[in-house]
Design goal:
- By secondary structure, this protein is of the alpha+beta class.
- The chain folds into two domains: 1-108 and 194-281, Winged helix-like DNA-binding domain superfamily/Winged helix DNA-binding domain (Arc Repressor Mutant, subunit A), CATH 1.10.10; 114-177, Alpha-Beta Plaits (2-Layer Sandwich), CATH 3.30.70.
- Helices cover 56% and strands 11% of the residues.
- The chain has twelve helices and seven strands.
- β5 and β6 (148-151) form a beta hairpin.
- α2 (22-37) crosses α10, α6 runs antiparallel to α7 (157-167) and α9 packs across α12.
- The two termini are 31 Å apart.
């Protein structure tokens, strides 16, 4: 499974924070707590951790089994107990995803250059079309027109070439160039991405995270995990456009500041709770 598939969200207006699936929450726990620890974790630890997030035991067990079937986790039997360890592919997936999540939202200088990709796939190849869309979107490209993808990040050209080769898209044309003046560039940005919908997603995030007020380590762990769970949608939803192409004001900047401020504030308490969960088994 690709990083794009790990990160791709289902976006619904005004969805409740933490209403994600057991599997999605398990991935967040794996990336935030298991990956840095680099050691096996008992089944009971996952059951107790996800229970704090409202996930039932059966759903957690199913999420573990599915993650193992997809090659992210290996299980080790110790008598009647089972411990889980990230596989090399799981480590790679989560490392890439974590780097993208925590580095996302940093404004960068833009020289006006665009990356353009012409990739046409027949309507009958629905699976390939879907895979192309999700993979290019994860790399920050927007669909300007049928078969035309654009990004103001020309430095991602090699990543895009690797994606096209990996999923088997032949005959694509890739080039870098300018798109007229700034007014035209802003029009292209509005056409290739639904910036209004992305703005609404950020406003939802700001409003719902503001309501999280953990008072102890247990609540800090739940709040921290939900915070990361919600934030990891945005590298897929938001292409990370240069400030010149964004509406003013733009809620993404405030959302990024809130994410890092709350993450830093809750990290110590959440870490203590994870230590309790791993040590009391």
């Amino acid at each position: 499974m690709s990083v794009a598939e790990y990160a791709e969200p289902e976006f619904h207006r005004r969805r409740e924070l933490g209403a994600a699936s057991a599997r999605s929450l398990l991935l967040t726990v794996l990336g935030e707590w298991v990956l840095p620890g680099a050691r096996p974790v008992w089944t009971a630890t996952f059951l107790n951790a996800l229970a704090l997030l409202g996930v039932e035991e059966k759903a957690t067990r199913q999420a573990l089994a599915r993650s193992a079937a997809e090659g992210w986790l290996d299980s080790e039997r110790h008598g009647r107990r089972t411990a889980w360890r990230l596989t090399p592919s799981g480590v790679g997936l989560l490392t890439d995803g974590t780097a993208r999540i925590y580095g996302f939202g940093e404004p960068a200088a833009w020289d006006g250059q665009w990356l353009m990709v012409l990739a046409s796939i027949p309507e009958t190849s629905r699976r390939l079309r879907h895979l192309l869309r999700t993979r290019l979107a994860w790399n920050g490209l927007g669909n300007l027109a049928a078969g035309v993808w654009v990004s103001p990040h020309p430095e991602r050209e090699q990543e895009v070439r690797e994606v096209l080769a990996e999923i088997g898209v032949d005959g694509a044309t890739i080039f870098v160039g300018r798109l007229g003046d700034l007014a035209e560039a802003r029009r292209v940005a509005r056409q290739a991405w639904d910036l209004a919908e992305i703005e609404l997603a950020y406003e939802d995030f700001l409003g719902q995270v503001a309501e999280l007020r953990p008072t102890d380590d247990t609540e800090a762990f739940a709040a921290q995990t939900r915070l990361i769970q919600e934030w990891r949608r945005f590298p897929f939803l938001d292409p990370g456009l240069p400030p010149e192409l964004l509406p003013v004001p733009w809620s993404g900047a405030a959302a990024r500041d809130m994410f890092h401020e709350r993450h830093d504030s809750w990290q110590a308490g959440a870490g203590r709770q994870w230590a309790v969960l791993t040590e009391k088994i």
